[in-house]
Specification:
heterodimer, A: 351 residues, alpha+beta, Rossmann fold, OB fold (Dihydrolipoamide Acetyltransferase, E2P), 6-stranded mixed sheet, 5-stranded antiparallel sheet, 8 helices, 24% helix, elongated, B: 280 residues, mainly alpha, MetI-like fold, two-stranded antiparallel ribbon, 76% helix, 2% strand, globular
Chain lengths: 351, 280
């Protein structure tokens, strides 16, 4: 069974945290709600978990309206951002808490807690207290505590935010694998685009209490529907354009687009990923003569900033794999930048 | 001067304050408790006779044990009333809670004597309590049972020392992160189960501190028994006071004071030990 939000609004006094959010969380999927802080993503999680009530709208679980069902009667479990481990209980007691409350006998609680702690790799830490664990270990205990009750849905509130980069990468892989193994629905909240892209089946991008776009990571990355989404996922060349006689008129010339693209919207941004803009490649269909402004070595990639001759105020960003043997242009050089028309994402300008 | 010797010098200067005002007086009365009276004269010779007298004298010992029993009841009443009040304040919205807390802490800003006089007038024959009880119809005529006995001491001390129970309990409740309550509910616990398994254990240190405050304050209080206790309200505090103020047997008073002091110290150490074993 999946969770459905129907026209959920939440206001704190005059401040609108959510405005008429509708969302389907399908059974067994890894759905990520992504947005900057203050976008309302945590509020959605809190409403699904029952920690706060929506001002308007209903929450459904399968065929049941659970809007008024209190937290402790919802078949969901949460991994909290600060882990919220009980400081006066051992690791084992923390993990077994939910089972014990359900009245399950002590032996089963013990074996299930131990089993679950083995899954998260903390088999030897049964008798430790949370204060004696590292951040990453606490995170795993919180995870074990949430999955041990075999909930229908697991809510994860930025669980990786407090971990260091290396630990975070490890946990990303672990979480994704865990989700596949126990085939439980994960509703994951984060502000980290990379995290969302690498882990999710679908991503909900939020801004200002509204949903900007819902889609698979690839859809979100390559076919953004709004300028916010186009800018939020890494760098993007946002080329302000118009449609004239079925042609895209850009500052550096007119471009013929494939027939499949709806050419009625205007004005538009033609968004082009920096890695889709090629330098010195012959196979591109469209070529833009430009002057190099900057060459930045970033490590595995090298970034080039250049201004088209036809539009000297505009800066185009090119991202390419670094190659020590490649002879790169220098500042002031004239080069040809190329791309293919089908790599453009056409986004309506909303203001 | 090296930085190290400056540090030591500074420490010595700062340490004189607690030394002069805490260590010296306590040592003085501890020493005095080993002296004796000869007529009206203090004999400065070491002897444990004061302690032997105290522990072998039936009426002193009984008063002492009665006082312990009284203080235990004051503590129990203080916690049983103070905990729900602290919990109630904690559950309010921040602003209403602060206001309530201020209200309950208000008696701390008032003079101790004023509070006791107020209690005496409330408990008396024409007092507020009798008027209400007669008015409601529980009593036919105003009763004398509320004043000049052990019960009066119990009621007065419980009321006067209540803020000392409420404040530490509230502080320990306030330190419980909201997310722990959410986590407990999330794992299927009703608010009653959460209260038993999360709130009570995590507020235990504050509750113990509150109990200690009330018990120790009640133990040393000799004014309340004197003002509202009447002839039957004799407590060890009053006995000690009478040794200094009436009998002029300072060494004996000091010995009883030392017993009280050591008892309080023992309780504090025991509580601190218990708290250090908690993994919070």
């Amino acid at each position: 069974m999946g969770v459905t939000l129907k026209a959920i609004s939440k206001a704190y006094g005059a401040h609108k945290a959510l405005s008429e959010i509708s969302l389907d969380v399908s059974d067994g999927e890894f759905l990520t709600i992504l947005g900057p802080s203050g976008s309302g993503k945590t509020t959605i999680l809190r409403i699904v978990g029952g920690f706060t009530q929506p001002t308007a709208g209903r929450v459904w679980f399968g065929d049941d309206d659970i809007t008024d069902v209190p937290t402790h009667k919802r078949p969901f479990n949460t991994v909290f951002q600060d882990y919220a481990l009980f400081p006066h209980m051992t690791v084992e007691q923390n993990v077994g808490y939910g089972l014990k409350i359900k009245g399950i006998d002590r032996k089963t609680v013990r074996s299930k807690s131990t089993e679950t702690l083995d899954i998260v790799g903390l088999g030897g830490f049964l008798d430790r207290y949370p204060a004696q664990l590292s951040g990453g270990q606490r995170q795993r205990v919180a995870l074990a505590r949430a999955i041990v009750c075999e909930p229908e849905l697991i809510l994860l509130d930025e669980p990786l935010a407090a971990l260091d980069a290396e630990m975070r990468r490890q946990m990303q892989g672990f979480l994704k694998e865990l989700q596949r193994n126990i085939s439980t629905t994960f509703l994951f909240v984060t502000h980290d685009q990379e995290e969302a892209i690498t882990m999710s089946d679908r991503i909900v991008v939020m801004d200002n209490g509204e949903i900007e776009q819902i889609g698979t990571p690839k859809e979100i990355y390559y076919s953004p529907k709004t300028p916010f989404v186009a800018r939020f996922f890494g760098e993007n060349n946002m080329i302000k354009s118009d449609f004239v006689d079925g042609q895209l008129r850009t500052p550096f010339g007119e471009i013929a687009l494939p027939a499949s693209i709806n050419k009625s919207k205007r004005p538009v941004f033609a968004a082009l990923r920096p890695e889709k803009l090629l330098f010195g490649a012959a196979k591109s269909t469209i070529s833009i003569p430009s002057i190099v402004k900057e060459v930045i070595f970033i490590g595995s990639t090298t970034q080039l900033r250049a201004c088209p001759l036809a539009a000297p105020d505009m800066v185009l960003i090119v991202k390419m794999a670094s190659d020590p043997n490649q002879v790169l242009p220098k500042k002031g050089d004239q080069i040809d930048l190329g791309f293919n028309a089908q790599d453009l994402a056409i986004i309506e300008v909303t203001q | 001067m090296t930085p190290r010797s400056i540090k030591i010098a500074l420490f010595m200067i700062i340490a004189t304050v607690p030394f002069l005002f805490v260590v010296v007086p306590i040592s003085a009365f501890l020493i005095m408790s080993f002296w004796q009276m000869d007529g009206a004269q203090i004999v400065r010779e070491f002897s444990v006779s004061n302690y032997v007298d105290f522990f072998t004298n039936d009426s002193y010992l009984r008063t002492f044990l009665n006082t312990l029993w009284l203080c235990s009841r004051v503590t129990a009443v203080g916690i049983l009333i103070g905990y729900p009040i602290a919990w109630f304040i904690w559950k309010r919205e921040k602003r209403a809670g602060s206001l309530l807390l201020l209200l309950f802490a208000m008696p701390l800003f008032m003079s101790y004597i004023v509070k006791i006089y107020t209690m005496r007038s409330i408990l008396g024959l024409n007092g507020f309590l009798n008027k209400i009880l007669v008015g409601v119809g529980i009593l036919d005529t105003p009763s004398l049972v509320f004043l000049y006995n052990q019960t009066a001491i119990l009621i007065t001390m419980s009321v006067v020392f209540l803020p000392f129970a409420i404040l530490p309990i509230y502080l320990s409740l306030d330190r419980i992160p909201q997310s722990l309550l959410h986590a407990s509910a999330d794992l299927g616990a009703s608010s009653g189960v959460t209260f038993r398994h999360v709130v009570i254990p995590l507020s235990l240190p504050g509750t113990v501190a509150g109990a200690l405050f009330v018990f120790i304050l009640a133990l040393g209080d000799f004014i309340t028994p004197q003002m509202v206790g009447g002839p039957s309200g004799f407590t060890i505090g009053r006995v000690i006071w009478s040794q200094f103020g009436l009998a002029y047997n300072w060494p004996f008073g000091a010995a009883m004071g030392a017993v009280l002091f050591l008892l309080a110290l023992l309780l504090i150490v025991a509580a601190a030990f218990a708290a250090s074993r908690q993994k919070v």
